[in-house]
Amino acid sequence: MSGREYTNESISALKGAERVRLRPSVIFGSDDLEGCKHSFFEILSNSIDEAREGFGSLITVSRYKDHSIQVEDEGRGIPLDYNKNEKRYNWELIYCELYAGGKYNNQGDSNYEFSLGLNGLGACATQYASEFFDVQVRRDGYAYSLHFEKGENIGGLQKEEYKGRKTGTTQHWKPDRHVFTDIDLPLDFFRDVLKKQAIVNAGVRFVLKDEASGSTEEFYYPEGIKAHVSELNTENAITETFSFSGKGRGKDREDKSEYKVTAEVAFAFNRSKSCIEYYHNSSWLEYGGSPDRAARSAFVAEFDREIKAGNKYKAGESKISFNDIEDSLILVISSFSSFSSYENQTKKAINNRFIQTFLNDLIRENLRVWFIENQAAAGQVIDQLLINKRSRENAEKQRLSLKKKLLGQIDNMYNRIKNFVDCRSRNVEERELYIVEGNSALGSVKMARDAEFQAVIPLRGKILNCLKASYGQIFKNDIIMDLLKILGCGIHIEGKMKSHNIAPFDLDALRWSKIIICTDADVDGYQIRTLILAMLYRLTPKLIEAGKVYIAETPLFEINHVYKGIEQNYFAYTEKEKKEILDRLQGGKIHIQRSKGLGENDPEMMWQTTMNPETRRLIQVMPESPERMQETFDLLLGDNLAGRKQYIEDFGGDYMEMLDVG
């Protein structure tokens, strides 16, 4: 118990800039470079919304050496003056108030019919997350300026007369390292974002200036997504680019409000290239959502219908899948809606049901037109897609056949190894092998383990000292050979000598993510552990180099503490830990028991101390220099008898806690 009380006064609320600075992941998705990228996009989005509404056709982004960023547009300029309705200045609402903006009323009379910056979070959140944030606005015959530092306004709103005709907003800021773990946004990120925005905002010109390199680049697509698809389809094209658009109104549920949707779709088929991109309100949908589900359903349905109409399926053949289509498809969908249901603030997917239905119908209707108007090209596409399909199915059959054969061989081999207990998972990335001493330890470990991913093999007694034994002796040893078969990776033998029973070493053939040596915390247990390590060192040294070998620490002491009727158990892995635990315990009844062998431990204790990935202690066996490893193994198990005697004289006292002398 910590002693701290949980009272009414324990509840607190974050205020002002702290709402973002202390919890940036809530707004930006993370506090790393990805979150920093999103903070930039929030500011860019507002300028894009202006340009798409017809106010300014140029957006300039500048990247500075100090990692600060500037976005300048030629829009109407953000209103910053006094708001009579809200009885506050607009600059306070926009830059200091979350969920405030000019884009909520986009169902009727609105400044923004289709808005990318929708939630009223971006400008304020980015300002709060910045080391400094400067705003300059030109509108209504005035030039306005604001300056913020770490979320706090310095100097209020500055306003002076402006006689120029150019309007717009310039925002210059530096993401704060105290908020984001990394603020060094790479130049390629800006290139990628601005190119995508130029593609889906036809006619808007994006300019990127980089102070570090001195470069200036321009991104401009007058024909929008159609030009982008044609650009990707320049080589090995099966068809020319086909594009279409549509508008609609609908609702996601009967009791919800109706909203407007527009969409543009462009696609082509190619023999060597595939690319699928979805955008909504000009934001790239990394995970798609509704548009992706619509496209998959529509393309599969129409191509399946056309293949059946042409009798191109073989007897009993399964229908085409989207995987077969997308291998040869270049597709870009750009949709806009007056109401958007994003999965979260990072806008990487939408889940509007009406948008999905609308796009599905729009694509199917226009695909039918495309089939009629492009019969020859459509026939070539169908032939290519059926090749994709049959190649995929043949490859899958071969893969499953090979997997079944190999698993059968493994299972048959495993069944012949006495006392080996496998796990259920066949995913090598999660499978763990526990090597324990004796059948008694096997019983407790078997009951304690997670059978999904933890397997167990017991060793009978002390295994052969592989540092002194010849290869002939090793290959005749059933215990070692069984263990090598279970590992599955073969052995490494220097020179020309080969074994006909064990394959050469291949790390990719290893069937385990972790090989865990689990022995009693006593002298015998440590000796068995050392012998296993010696075997791995001589026969499979690359397992150690690859970090696949671990030692499970098992506790030396179990401490039972009863105080005021509450019983608690503690585990100490060393004498020092035992002393530290005892020093912390105040009053009550304390019982200390030296840990029994693994075979005598109850399963609950074994799981908690030795097998639960959340609470166990694993020591990863890390390689030293080859010379150092050779010297150490030779000292412990080799022919260096004089050195071993001297080592015992010098350091033997350090190991006395292993001995149960009481």
Offer a concise description of the structure.
The protein is an alpha+beta fold and 662 residues long.
Annotation keywords:
disordered C terminus, alpha+beta, single chain, 20 helices, 9-stranded mixed β-sheet, 662 residues, 5-stranded mixed β-sheet
Describe the structure.
By secondary structure, the protein is α+β, with helices and mostly antiparallel strands. 37% of the residues lie in helices and 22% in strands. The chain contains 20 helices and 26 strands. Strands 1, 2, 5, 6, 7, 8, 9, 10 and 11 form a 9-stranded mixed beta sheet that branches. The chain has a 5-stranded mixed beta sheet with strand order 12-13-17-14-15, with helices on both faces. The chain has a 5-stranded mixed beta sheet with strand order 20-19-21-22-26, sandwiched between helices. Helix 3 (33-52) runs antiparallel to helix 5 (122-128) and helix 4 crosses helix 5 (122-128). The longest helix is centred in the middle third of the chain and has 41 residues, at 375-415. The two termini are 33 Å apart. Residues 658-662 have low confidence and may be disordered.
List the helices and strands and how they pair.
Blueprint: H1 18-21, H2 24-28, H3 33-52, E1 58-63, E2 69-73, E3 82-83, E4 88-89, H4 90-96, H5 122-128, E5 130-139, E6 142-149, E7 152-153, E8 158-161, E9 168-175, H6 187-200, E10 205-210, E11 215-219, H7 225-232, E12 242-250, E13 259-269, E14 275-280, E15 283-284, E16 288-289, H8 290-309, H9 322-326, E17 329-337, E18 349-350, H10 353-373, H11 375-415, E19 432-437, H12 438-448, E20 454-459, H13 471-475, H14 478-487, E21 514-518, H15 523-539, H16 541-545, E22 549-552, E23 557-563, E24 566-572, H17 575-584, E25 589-594, H18 603-611, E26 618-620, H19 626-637, H20 641-651
